[in-house]
């Protein structure tokens, strides 16, 4: 079932194929999204309400009806029930355990000559979290975005999400928001919801950053609003890459390949191994296990198109291939998985050993599941607290120290043809 | 000379005007840059050499002639002379003093139950630094980009820069590269240079990230290659905002406003003060000092269009206005400048006190001069070591701990309709 790929011959081809899996935005989608943004930017709540009626079939009397009430949240929590609330709470605790290590502090250097240099860490003030409605409603994603933003100290964190025709938002989203500590939720989804967050309306506070996944209209709206607001990465199709040696259990390898392959037909699942025998055994396990999986058809297609097995010379070789592919999820199923860490340079999230399966990381390992895809792990990180802060540099120089820099700075400025820069130093020492 | 702006009435207007100063890319530029990128991506060195001949008038025999030789670098260093090399060395030391504090370490948590969680910090492997030729040749910018990249541990850091018709690169660029420790410099500028770095050719190694300023063709090429490679921020026109009380010296205020206003006609220089008297005195100083400045005409125009003075009720008020504008450079010329730090939330770089002028920060304060513009300091930081690394999360769970999560993860996965995710947990405990 897994295609065999040889390392030497096909890596470039695999890489091109994997990294090329981008959803193209049609000119038509682009145009209609741009119209929506322009109308909401200019028309505010009124335009937003019109789109709400048009696309969601929900016709509230006024824009305040777009705000989810405390009662609605509490009713959803009750309906969801204590067991799932407990699971969400546990997820939250796990995420805090991991992400609190990412919290950065402002720092200052006090030099002996009186110079003070530093960096002030400030949270982004207002962040909008887009949460899709419909079939792909993932409460886990609410938690993955909300917890780092909360730990960063974001003052205003709110959710924008599509509303159903009856004016309701999915219980599971409200429950996740409740556990994550998000109190403000707007019934405003699609491109119009993104536009409202980007430009602000009377009801919806203008955001500085918009995060969270969404369909093609949401992703296009985020791209088009980028600059007016910051946005997070646009996630591509999911990927898993497993590096395994002969010690790996083929049952687990097969299960984990399928756990990502089930996401959608563009998902990728690749095995790189030093054991040809393992490839054969994994193939058998894939066939054995797939029959019980509801999404078997999707799994078969994504493995057929974007799956495969690479036979590597040795583990060093295997990780070289993996580093070139820069996978979103990397499982290390070898005899000594922790020893692999020095060899890994490009990967969104690394799962070490046979009892750290990727799906644990999707929910409860504590690490984030919002990860770079399509080879962008070569330059991007998992979503983290660092995505919700910024650094402002600061400097304080006493006069006598500035005096020692005066001539050099003026020479430098003149060299660059910037005489008013030099003048700023000159005027400070004219009396001397 | 400074327009008076009232806080209550016009802030939104000022903000819109300042944050709207974006250079529009014409469809024509976009099309011609896209052609260049496509041709270089497909044609490699051959296409690059053709563009080199067409745009720069330089016709080397082969692509290896695009590589600056060690001899060329040493000759440039000799011509530049020891005094300016010393200034560059001093700049480098100052930058290291500041930026070494930004170096991040990998971290690991060892939990008592045997769980290991961590984050591996890895430098981006290959970074191309674009350095403009021609009139806007800033050796300072070479240093500002190179030092954080070097401190991050970037393995392959190279420069791409336009070549003159005689096949030479500006001495000052080569000297700055020498001091910064960059050994590889390619004579490949413009959109074609960017394309070569983004896609790689036989001669030029494919970069993972491209940084550095450039003209409209370079900026457009970077935007169009984004995704294939990472890019840095596209810098907008320069800005200075000065918050001053009655203790400020109008001579310094005027000089510093002009130091940014001289950059170009779109530059912005704004004074926010609690002292009406200061505004009048600054006006007089502007007129007195401007007569000696070669770029007086540019200064007059940028101050006329994007300059102004805001009279604030008190300092708290002044910093509220400043935070809304989120300036690239913020000077604090008040009696107790360090006390202002808690009030400042949005600013690229903060200059505290009357002997820490902004031009010092352009060259030698140690802080970076590559800064967010156009209000993007609300969500972006100064360029730093963090721009050249990425974090890979990792997790290791022992079997008995995974067992305690099994049921919750499976419940969560089923709730999200992802049965193959649940299966990954299930198969691991089938024997039990």
Automatic annotation (TrEMBL), chains A, B:
EC number(s) of the enzyme? 1.1.1.23
Question: Where does the source fall among the domains of life?
Answer: Bacteria
Amino-acid positions noted as binding NAD(+) in the UniProt annotation, renumbered to this chain: 130, 192, 215
Catalytic activity, per the record?
L-histidinol + 2 NAD(+) + H2O = L-histidine + 2 NADH + 3 H(+)
Could you cite one Gene Ontology molecular function of this protein?
histidinol dehydrogenase activity
Please tell me whether the keyword DNA damage is annotated for this protein.
Answer: no
Q: Into which family does the record put it?
A: Belongs to the histidinol dehydrogenase family.
Q: What does this protein do?
A: Catalyzes the sequential NAD-dependent oxidations of L-histidinol to L-histidinaldehyde and then to L-histidine.
Q: What is this protein called?
A: Histidinol dehydrogenase
Query: Source species, please?
Result: Sharpea porci
This chain is encoded by the gene named hisD
């Amino acid at each position: 079932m897994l295609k065999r790929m040889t390392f030497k011959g096909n890596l470039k081809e695999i890489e091109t194929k994997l990294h090329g899996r981008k959803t193209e935005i049609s000119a038509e989608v682009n145009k209609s999204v741009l119209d929506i943004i322009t109308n909401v930017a200019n028309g505010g709540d009124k335009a937003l309400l019109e789109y709400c009626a048009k696309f969601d079939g929900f016709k509230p009397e006024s824009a305040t009806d777009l705000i989810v009430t405390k009662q609605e949240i509490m009713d959803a929590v009750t309906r969801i029930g204590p067991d799932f609330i407990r699971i969400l709470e546990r997820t939250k605790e796990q995420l805090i355990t991991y992400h609190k290590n990412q919290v950065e502090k402002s720092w200052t250097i006090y030099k002996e000559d009186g110079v003070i240099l530093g960096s002030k860490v400030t949270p982004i003030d207002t962040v909008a979290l887009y949460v899709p409605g419909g079939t792909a409603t993932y409460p886990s994603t609410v938690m993955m975005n909300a917890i780092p933003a909360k730990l960063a100290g974001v003052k205003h964190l709110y959710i924008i999400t599509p509303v159903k025709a009856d004016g309701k938002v999915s219980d599971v989203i409200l429950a996740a928001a409740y556990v994550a500590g998000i109190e403000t939720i707007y019934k405003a989804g699609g491109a119009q919801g993104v536009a409202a967050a980007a430009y602000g309306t009377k009801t919806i506070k203008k955001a500085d950053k918009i995060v969270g996944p969404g369909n093609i209209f949401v992703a296009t709206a985020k791209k088009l609003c980028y600059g007016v607001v910051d946005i997070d990465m646009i996630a591509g199709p999911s990927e898993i890459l497993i590096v395994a040696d002969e010690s790996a259990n083929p049952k687990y390898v097969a299960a984990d390949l399928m756990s990502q392959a089930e996401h959608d037909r563009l998902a990728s699942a690749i095995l790189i191994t030093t054991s040809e025998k393992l490839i054969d055994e994994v193939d058998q396990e894939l066939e054995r296990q797939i029959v019980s999986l509801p999404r078997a058809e999707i799994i078969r297609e994504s493995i057929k198109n974007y799956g495969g097995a690479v036979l590597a010379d040795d583990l060093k070789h295997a990780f070289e291939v993996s580093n070139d592919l820069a996978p979103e999820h990397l499982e290390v199923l070898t005899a000594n998985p922790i020893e692999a860490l020095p060899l890994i340079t490009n990967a969104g999230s690394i799962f070490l050993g046979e009892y750290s399966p990727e799906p644990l990381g999707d929910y409860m390992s504590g690490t984030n599941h919002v990860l770079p895809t399509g080879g962008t792990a070569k330059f991007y990180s998992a979503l983290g607290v660092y995505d919700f802060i910024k650094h402002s540099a600061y400097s304080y120089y006493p006069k006598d120290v500035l005096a020692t820099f005066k001539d050099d700075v003026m020479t430098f400025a003149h060299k660059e043809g910037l005489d008013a820069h030099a003048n700023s130093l000159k005027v400070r020492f004219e009396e001397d």
